[in-house]
Design brief:
Blueprint lengths: L3 H15 L18 H7 L6 H8 L4 E4 L5 E22 L4 E22 L5 E10 L1
Antiparallel strand pairs: 1-2, 2-3, 3-4
Length: about 130
């Protein structure tokens, strides 16, 4: 028969394991999460080079070339934020452990599209963006 300290140790393991909530998936696919309307407004200006824009915003999703050597870079990113809250209760007995978990998750999604137009000299000529959250 197991000793009392062994039973207490096993009971505490079950109790602590019963109070955890598994993590939920999120948008951690390696893309930069610094792309926001505030960053675009504050950091991107007419006359910047493509290298400067790429340093701030990262690689664009789409690059198109227009007449006379102009370029258009399009950034399109979506982010999902998941907030969780949990409440756990546990009661242990000399022989075993019972526990209850309640978890609540709330999520919101933000989508931002940024269009950066370059002139023939490869300098930023125009910037437009749209951000929505739901």
């Amino acid at each position: 028969m197991p000793t009392r300290p062994t039973l207490l140790f096993v009971a505490s393991l079950f109790l602590s394991a019963g109070c955890s909530v598994p993590s939920l998936p999120s948008d951690t696919n390696g893309q930069s999460t610094a792309l926001t309307a505030g960053v675009v407004q504050r950091e991107i200006h007419k006359g910047m080079t493509g290298g400067e824009v790429a340093t701030i915003l990262g690689s664009p999703n789409i690059v198109t070339t227009g007449p006379e050597g102009t370029e258009v870079w399009v950034y399109d990113r979506s982010f999902t934020q998941v907030e969780t809250a949990n409440a756990g209760t546990g009661v242990w007995f000399i022989v075993g452990v019972t526990s209850q978990n309640a978890a609540v998750a709330r999520s919101s999604q933000t989508t931002i599209t940024v269009v950066v137009k370059f002139d023939a000299a490869k300098k930023v000529n125009d910037i437009a963006f749209h951000q929505s959250q739901f």
